Amino acid sequence: MKETFFALVDGNNFYASCERVFNPKLNGTPIVVLSNNDGCVIARSNEAKALGIPMGAPAFEWEQVFIKNRVHVFSANFTLYGDMSNRVMTLLGTYTPEMEIYSIDEAFLKFSGYERYFDLSQYCQNMKQAVTQSTGIPLSVGVAPSKALAKIANKIAKKFPEQTKGCHVIDSEEKRLKALKWQKVEDVWGIGRQHAKRLNAIGVKTAYEFTQVSDAWVKKHMSIVGLRLKQDLSGQAVLDLEDIKLKKNIATTRSFEAMYARIEELKERISTFAVSCAEKLRRQQSCCTALLVFLRTNPFREDLPQYSASTVVDLPFPSNSAIELSHYACIALEKIFRKGYLYKKAGVMVLDFMPEDQIQLNIFEQSDPRHVPLMQAIDKLNKIYGQQKIRLASQDLKRIWKMKQEKLSPKYTTRLADVVVVKA
After folding, report:
1. Listed residue (208, 213, 123) closest to 174, CA to CA
2. Which of 78, 104, 231, 308 lies in the 20 to 30 Å Cα band around 241?
3. HSE-up of 300 (CA within 13 Å, CB side)?
């Protein structure tokens, strides 16, 4: 038996579960959560899945299905979901010092030597129950000697809740082989659509069959990454917890509420997007050395001329100043803007990061040093008084961009006016 085990903890239908925590009437009813601007379905409760509502379903096309089946539809409340995720992750962190937050609703936990002192299955059951009792979020837990196997164990726990009580432990060779033979190869974590096609072409249908493929074939067709995955599925823990890394790029993109034809209107939007990216850079204490700007007309308006373009601008120096990024983003916009089109979407992406305390100075050009304390003051004021209170003159001072969120639930945990009131 291995002395190190990994657990994958996953929030069941996380977004839908967050909505149910503060509105128990939703329990047992179909729920869907829509993407930004209420575009398409990004989350479904089990009841909604049973109705055949697919992920990515355009909301306007499925509106009659929602009405007919009394589906509760919510706009994405990321403020609520993020806060609930933080509460879940904080509690999970009390059960082991080694944790990797994999996504908003998933985390890998590492248990080194725990089986010497605990029944690992019972320990994880207790953890699952304690977190659910404290937050209201139902969890599934998969435990195994490696991360890839823990992913499969988690799927088993979720697929067979009555038998597993939401927690499945792969702690023997018999269980490992049974799990691998049950798991379809296309559903294995890390095997994408193209690799699944290659494997199916040589007769590989299950995760177990994948582990029987020669190392030479896997390395040739799936690189060293695929070989490590095979080893991980074989019970060799070659994939360890990952440290938190800086994002490699940051983007702010939006579809407009109306179509824009004038460059002045677009400059205001591009400036606002660049300011948002700069704020995110400062939050992770890094600078960028390039940025990408794109423009796009509405592809669904086939009656209108279509145009899309993007360009990358290299900055003369690393920066996270909103003033400087806005300036160069507008220069990029001027390069790609064309008259005679109605634009529906635009965006700014900042690229090529470096830590802000490791910037190499340029003898000819460098970021204005006065911007550092200025940005710090702006960030502090916006944090105290709310986002976008302090803005650049290039931004519309009367306009606060707001997504279409017609079915947004209250921010129960982060906004005082939305706190649940209990009458006793």
Report:
1. 208
2. 78
3. 4
Q: How far apart are the first and last CA of the chain?
A: 53
What's the pLDDT tens digit per position in 243-299?
Answer: 655 566 788 888 888 899 999 999 999 999 999 999 999 988 899 999 999 999 998
Lay out the sheet containing 286-297: strands in order across.
250-260, 343-355, 286-297, 308-319
Rounded Cα gap, residues 232 and 238, in angstroms: 6
pLDDT at residue 1, as a whole number: 44
Residue 17 φ/ψ region, left for φ over 0, alpha for ψ in the -120 to 50 degree band, beta for the rest: alpha
Number of Cβ within 10 Å of residue 339's Cβ equals 7
Question: What is the rounded CA–CA span in Å between residue 23 and residue 41?
Answer: 20
Cα-Cα-Cα-Cα dihedral sign, residues 47, 51, 56, 58: negative
Please tell me the distance from the alpha carbon of residue 72 to that of residue 314, in angstroms, as a whole number: 47
Residue 399: predicted pLDDT: 59
The three-class DSSP label of residue 271 is helix
Q: How confident is the model at residue 398 (pLDDT cuts 50, 70, 90)?
A: low
Q: Within 10 A of 403 (CB to CB), how many other CB atoms are there?
A: 16
Instruction: Reduce the DSSP state of residue 141 to 3 states and report it.
Output: strand
pLDDT for position 22:
92
Amino acid (one-letter) located at 37 = N
DSSP summary character for residue 113: S
**Strands 308-319, 286-297: parallel, antiparallel or unpaired by DSSP?**
antiparallel
